[in-house]
């Protein structure tokens, strides 16, 4: 991430989220002639950032993002997401193109087919706070599980992601 993006990380996170939502809306509209309702969470305490509804399929989505060359091997997932119908995690892998002044997205997906609950998180390690307490101990975060990158499915295009999210066929 450039210095400017690092210093304005909230802005940059919103830029990527808006680009993602735009990609989903365009793919569903132009590819399938359907609309998607989009609801955005004000607070992340319930485990999701955005809710999509398309053709009766409701998806509570936790968004994660990283650059294409990032080294991150796990994502923190709030267990509350498992209480939502068809909860899932979409890891936005961003490819920044300075020449076109655009971000291109590919995806990593953790979830089940439309209408099915999130796979169990019980076998994953419990997350810890990133900062230690006064003694330096990093306490557990009982509501967070660390899902390894290897458990995510790589999805290269928004067309494929829309199929995964809503079951829409080409």
In brief:
The chain is of the alpha+beta class and 170 residues long. The protein is 22% helix and 35% strand.
3D structure, described in words:
- The protein is of the alpha+beta class.
- The protein has one domain.
- It is 22% helix and 35% strand.
- The protein has helices at residues 3-7, 9-32, 158-166, and strands spanning 37-40, 50-54, 57-67, 74-78, 88-97, 102-110, 125-128, 140-148, 153-155.
- The chain has a six-stranded mixed beta sheet.
- The longest helix is centred in the N-terminal third of the chain and has 24 residues, at 9-32.
- It starts with a helix and ends with a helix.
- The mean pLDDT is 90.
Structural class: alpha+beta
Unreliable residue runs: none
Q: What are the secondary-structure elements, in order, as H or E?
A: HHEEEEEEEEEH
User: How many separate domains?
Assistant: 1
> Widest sheet: strand order?
1-2-3-5-6-9
Q: Average the pLDDT over all residues and give the rounded result.
A: 90
* Sheet with most strands: 6 strands, mixed
Gyration radius, in Å: 17 Å
* Fraction of residues in H or I helices: 10-25%
What is the tally of beta strands? 9
Number of separate helices: 3
The first-to-last residue Cα distance is 35 Å
Strand content: 35-45%
Shape category: globular
Task: Please give a handful of descriptors for the protein shown.
170 residues; alpha+beta; 3 helices; 35% strand
What does the secondary structure layout of this molecule look like, with pairings?
Layout: H1 3-7, H2 9-32, E1 37-40, E2 50-54, E3 57-67, E4 74-78, E5 88-97, E6 102-110, E7 125-128, E8 140-148, E9 153-155, H3 158-166
